[in-house]
Amino acid sequence: MADTPLLHQWANDPELWASLVGWHFPYSAGSAENWVRNYDGRSIDSISLCIEDEELGLIGTASLKPINWKDRNAFYGIMLGDPNTRGRGLGKDAAMAIMRYAFDELDLVRLDTEIVGSNKVSLEFHVQALGWKIEGVKKDWFYRDGKRHDKVIAGITADDYRLGSSSYWKA
C-alpha cells in the first residue's frame, strides 16, 4: 500500500499518458487504493507487476494481459513512471526479465505490443534494444494533444528473443 500514492500520481500524469497506448481517465486516490487493495494476482489471464530498483524503489509497472493460453501469446506493456529513471538501463532490465518469464517460465511463443507512433524513444527501445519487429502501422489511430498519431504494432517471438538475448544474460 505504500506505493499507492506514486501509482496514483502516474495514473494522473498527462505527459506520461500522452505517450502510452490506451484510453485513460484520471482517477482518485481512493480508486488507486481500491485497485491495489483488491488486486490479488490470481487472475489466470493477466499479470501486473511493479518494477523496483534497490536504491530508487518503485520506478514503473509491467504487464502481460491478456494472456492467451491456447495460442500461447500475450499482450505486453511496460512503463517507467519517473522520467529521471529512463535511459539508465532499468527499463531494459525489466523488459528482458518480463520476456524471460513469458518465454522460459510461462512457455509463451510470442508477445505483442502497441506503441504510439510519435513515441520514438519507445519504438527505438523495442526494436533496437530488445529485438522486437514492427509488424504493422494503423494510420491516425490515436488522438493526443490535438493531433492524430499512428499505432505501431510490434511483436517478438520466443525464438527471436532467445537468439538476441543470450549475450544479455551472460553479461
Automatic annotation (TrEMBL):
The keyword Transferase applies. Pfam families: Acetyltransf_3. InterPro entries: Acyl_CoA_acyltransferase, GNAT_dom. One of its GO terms (molecular function) is acyltransferase activity, transferring groups other than amino-acyl groups. The keyword Electron transport does not apply. Residues 1-159 form the N-acetyltransferase domain. SUPFAM superfamilies: Acyl-CoA N-acyltransferases (Nat) (SSF55729). Keywords: Transferase. PANTHER family: GNAT-FAMILY ACETYLTRANSFERASE, SPERMIDINE N(1)-ACETYLTRANSFERASE. This is Protein N-acetyltransferase, RimJ/RimL family. It comes from Noviherbaspirillum humi.
